[in-house]
């Protein structure tokens, strides 16, 4: 019977965690981009960007933790 695979060398585990990290960064980045655009359109610098970046952080962390569990 072969030994169980070492998690350090398991490519599927690495790609899973890299995908979760990319998803977190992407969510925050999209929210910041939309916030910057809306602030430019409405002249509310920097309030919408701050609000949407916080929403992006909370949402991204929520999805990341849900994927990890």
Give a structural overview.
The protein is mostly helical. It has a domain at 22-68. Helices cover 78% and strands 0% of the residues. The protein has helices at residues 11-42, 47-68. Helix 1 packs antiparallel against helix 2. It is rod-shaped and about 65 Å long. The two termini are 29 Å apart. The relative contact order is 0.14. The mean pLDDT is 90.
Defining key terms:
single chain, 0% strand, 69 residues, 78% helix
Residue runs with pLDDT of under 50 for 5 or more positions: none
The fraction of residues assigned to DSSP E strands is under 5%
Distance between the termini: 29 Å
Helix and strand run: HH
Main sheet overview: none
Shape label: rod-shaped
By DSSP, the count of extended strands is: 0
The overall average pLDDT, rounded, is 90
Number of distinct helices: 2
Radius of gyration: 18 Å
Structural class: mainly alpha
Helix share of residues?
over 70%
Map the helices and strands:
Elements: H1 11-42, H2 47-68
Helix pairs in contact: 1-2
Could you give a short description of this structure?
It contains two helices and no strands. The protein has helices spanning 11-42, 47-68.
């Amino acid at each position: 019977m072969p030994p169980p695979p070492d998690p350090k060398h398991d490519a599927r585990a690495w790609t899973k965690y890299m995908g979760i990290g990319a998803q977190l960064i992407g969510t925050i980045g999209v929210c910041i981009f939309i916030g910057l655009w809306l602030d430019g359109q409405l002249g509310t610098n920097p309030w919408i960007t701050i609000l949407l970046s916080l929403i992006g952080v909370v949402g991204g962390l929520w999805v990341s933790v849900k994927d990890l569990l």
